[in-house]
Amino acid sequence: MDILNRFECYVEENKLFSKADKILVAVSGGRDSMLLLWLLHHCNYSIEVAHCNFQLRGEESDGDEALVREFSAKNSVPIHVKRFDTQGYSESTKVSIQMAARELRYTWFEELRQQENCTVIAVAQHMNDSVETVLFNLSRGTGLQGLQGILPKRDYSKVVRPLLFLQSREITAFVQEQNIPFRDDSSNFSNKYARNKIRLDIIPELEKLNPEFIFIMNENIQRMRDSQEVLSSSMVRLRNEMLLPRGHDSWSISKGNLSNLSLNELYFFFEPYGFKKNVLQDLLDNLYKESGKKFEAESYQLITDREEVVLSHILEDYEEILIHSEDKKFVWVNYEFSAELSENISVLKEKNIAKIDFGKLVFPLVIRSWQEGDVFQPLGMQGKKKLSDYFIQKKINILEKRRVPILVNGDGRIIWVVNHHLDERFKIRDNTQKVLKLVCNLQTI
Question: How would you classify residue 264: left for phi > 0, otherwise alpha for psi between -120 and 50, otherwise beta?
Fold first, then answer.
């Protein structure tokens, strides 16, 4: 089967695009992207060309642009060219030249795709690029995800890679056979970059051991993808069974279920949340010790509670807000409050409404989250109660209690555990002359 047929089969098998789609083709002028452009044109796809001139190689960069313009004009293919101050962008954003060029081109490609109503952006990475990526990841340390190479397409991405079925040597041979014009980028032959060292030094040595090294590695990569797919599916099912939603961005898992998982199973179970193995080992070692112990990843945390472990985003430090007597509306975290004064002393039973004896208040009031040592006198009780004990009694877990608004008087006494319980000392009585009515609702998006 020749390369044209293999190309169309690969596109169809991986559902990259169809003849009904308009394709934006990223073309640098090198042999890989010129072959991609040639294949798409010869297979009669609807295409437009996007060429970036990064102005990093002087006349070489201008020569690349001229070649792509000439080929596009000769074959009546619409072309878009943009020149970038890559060096300036690199310096202003403090990223490497390579990263600067990547950010600039992909941002522009997506803008252009939308502007020209293209379905996808086609780029010319091939099998060797995928193998180089795996070797590069291995050199830095990686998990299964880093051994999957370059995918033909990713979920929610408009970038597709239709040449991953081809080895570099096949591309070179076909380009020469078909007299497809191209230009070599001199920077590809420099050992300055880590990827170039892998391409120029390491892979040739490995090919001495096995001339089919690239093909064999590609087969290994596919097996890694298959293994990852099976593992991911199993873990998704397990998470659906074990992780129970607990309000906004938080879940819980019973300690019993957790203790039935091995450390390796636990690692893959929590992999999407970024927990390292040593942190999870620490969790297992402390699972049945004191409640409230935290185990943190970069963005998530696990907190041990009485019979479960709570998973959540790293808790924000919720800032307290001050409430003055004239304030009518205010917001704390995702709670909206409204306030009004009246002389109506009738009692309401709605949990999100508090009617408070205005004469007992010392302004400014404060709304904050729970603090260690908080006590209040629940409505209807004679004595005081620790707020932490109240939360345990109400089965409010260690994470949720941080998100409960606490209304505090100017003298430090708790007035209202919002949406839960009023303090006895601030209830309205027969001799109450003025009532502060507070209504609390969750913000809707």
Answer: alpha
Digitized pLDDT (tens) for each residue of the chain, 445 residues in all: 599 999 999 999 999 999 999 999 999 999 999 999 999 999 999 999 999 999 988 899 999 999 999 999 999 999 999 999 999 999 999 889 989 999 999 999 999 999 999 999 999 999 999 999 999 999 999 888 899 999 999 988 999 999 999 999 999 999 999 999 999 887 777 777 788 899 999 999 999 999 999 999 999 999 999 999 999 999 999 999 999 988 667 899 999 999 999 999 999 999 999 999 999 999 999 999 888 888 999 889 999 988 999 998 876 668 889 999 999 999 998 899 999 998 887 877 788 999 999 999 999 999 999 988 999 999 989 899 999 899 989 888 777 888 899 999 999 999 999 999 999 999 999 899 999 999 999 876 4
Rounded CA gap, 154 and 136, in Å?
A: 20
Cis status of the peptide bond prior to 211, with omega within 30 of 0? no
Q: Tell me how far apart the terminal alpha carbons of the chain are, to the nearest angstrom.
A: 55
| Helix, coil or strand: residue 131 | helix
| The token pair that represents 21 in the structure block | 């789609």
Query: Quick one: CA torsion of 284, 287, 292, 294, rounded to 10 degrees?
Result: 0
What domains does the chain contain, in order, with CATH numbers?
3-209 (3.40.50.620), 243-313 (3.30.465), 321-442 (3.50.40.10)
> Is 340 in a helix, a strand, or coil?
strand
Alpha helix (H) ranges present in 76-199?
A: 86-93, 97-115, 127-140, 168-177, 194-197
Per-residue tokens: 126 = 């091939």
Contact at 8 Å (CB) between 406 and 369? yes
**Structure tokens that stand for 385 in this block:** 């109660």
Tell the residue number behind the tokens 């006198």, with chain if given: 377
pTM of the model: 0.71
Binning the chain into helix, strand and coil, the percentages to the nearest 5 are 40, 20, 35
β partners of residue 309: 253, 304
| Whole-number Å distance between alpha carbons of 411 and 400 | 26
Report in angstroms the alpha-carbon separations of 98 from 94, 158, 354, 428.
Answer: 12, 21, 59, 68
- Give φ, ψ of 421 to 5 degrees: -160, 135
